[in-house]
Amino acid sequence: MKKNYTLWVLLLTVCLFEVKAQNNNVGIGTLTPDPSAMLDVSATGKGVLIPRMTTAQRNAILSPANGLLVYDTDIGCFFYFNSSQWITLCQAGPQGPAGPTGPQGIAGTQGIDGVTGPQGPQGIQGPTGATGAQGIQGIQGPTGATGAQGIQGPTGDTGPQGIQGIQGPTGAQGIQGPTGPTGPQGIQGIQGPTGDTGPQGAQGPQGVQGPQGLQGIQGPTGPQGIQGPQGAQGAQGIQGPTGAQGPQGIQGPTGAQGAQGIQGPTGSQGPQGIQGPTGPQGAQGIQGPQGIQGVQGIQGIQGPTGPAWTNYQNNQSAAVTASSSTFQVIPGLSRTITLTSPAKILVFTDGGIQTTGTLSSSYSLVDIVVNINNNWIADGGFKRLNAVNNAGITGAFAFWSMGVYATTTSGSYTLPAGTYTIDVQTRLLGGSNATVGGNNSTVLQGVMQIFIIP
């Protein structure tokens, strides 16, 4: 019955429209179907209606032919069958490349999560697949009876382009472009400052401790006091008595005088008498008295007092904004000094900066230098400050404090007589603008102290 219905539709179509079928192709609404088309439908107010059905109905089609085209009303899109699956004609283009990952935030206290970046733009629609092969020519319906020749109507507008052949399968999804390289690891942020304990009241910063005055030149040692006279030699102690002489050994008795008889031989020498013992050592004589102490030497002459220092103090008069890499003098922290003789110049300075950035990630990187005649003072005349905001804290502070001897270009600490201009300058090296110092109503006020040491 369905085939008969189709046949009747074709016959009715032939009756309502002029049908041309000379070159094995069919034209509806046109007498000159395009030679490359098997079916050329021409109209200016109507279109071709493809079968419409739900997703379940589409999936229930038995053994769909390759190239079968339907409109899915659940999804709102055309689908065609390709070998083993239904392919949508509404496939989006490839996902746009992911934006590069932002640099790693400064380390320190965990910042508030940043807002998620916007979705990348919709990828460009992939190119339309090649036109599918022309469907098989339908069976040529019988030629209907020739109707009466109607009045030649005006030539209708050229009909719209015939139905596009079944959409060829969408080209394979282009290879996903490589994800852009992750941005370089952000510079390790300076450790965010511990949240400020409320600022100290209006009390300005403790002035720099004045340097210990140079040790005055050691006065010459006073002359050696006159050597006091040698104390009189104590009297010689009394000579202890000489020990008693030991007793003389007992004299052996003299042999009795023999009678004068005949001169007999001389008698043998009698034995030596026993040596008497040595007498005991006599007692030590009494120690003589200590000699008199010599007179104290005269006090040496007092050495001369060392030279006095001259000092100056400059206080900042107004805040200045560091906004570029060009150095500028901090208002009030400049002084010109004339030396009438060679001397040393010692400079102390302190003060603070505050970032104007309002984000938790804002920071200000600022240089502070001490100059003499517009040249940096080497070996201690330079500081680099970084005022970094933190989570929930903005307007962060940073402070400088320096003490340095001015030097000549040859490195000598003793400057020759002449005129010297000493000042403190600042510049912005990176980040948001910064407020440098201020007047005496803020803890940021800059101070410069100068000491002249002859």
Could you give a quick summary of the protein structure above?
The protein is mainly beta.
General form: elongated
Question: Number of DSSP helices?
Answer: 2
Estimate percent helicity: under 10%
Largest sheet: 6 strands, antiparallel
Quaternary status = single chain
Tell me what portion of residues adopts beta-strand conformation.
Answer: 15-25%
Determine the N-to-C terminus distance: 125 Å
Number of strands: 18
Mean pLDDT: 77
| Poorly predicted segments | 1-9, 14-19
Report the C-alpha radius of gyration, rounded: 61 Å
Structural class: mainly beta
The topology string of helices and strands comes to: HEEEEHEEEEEEEEEEEEEE
Overview of the structural elements:
By secondary structure, the chain is mainly beta. Among the domains are: 1-98 and 122-173, no CATH class; 310-453, Jelly Rolls, CATH 2.60.120. It contains two helices and 18 strands. The chain has helices at residues 2-16, 55-59, and strands at residues 19-20, 26-28, 39-41, 52-53, 69-72, 77-82, 85-88, 310-315, 320-322, 328-339, 344-355, 363-372, 375-376, 382-388, 397-405, 418-431, 434-436, 447-453. The strands form four sheets. Strands 8, 9, 11, 15, 17 and 18 form a six-stranded antiparallel beta sheet that branches. Strands 10, 12, 13, 14 and 16 form a five-stranded antiparallel beta sheet that branches. It has a four-stranded mixed beta sheet with strand order 4-5-6-7. β12 and β13 form a beta hairpin. It is elongated, with a radius of gyration of 61 Å. The termini are far apart. Mean pLDDT is 77; it is low at 1-9 and 14-19.
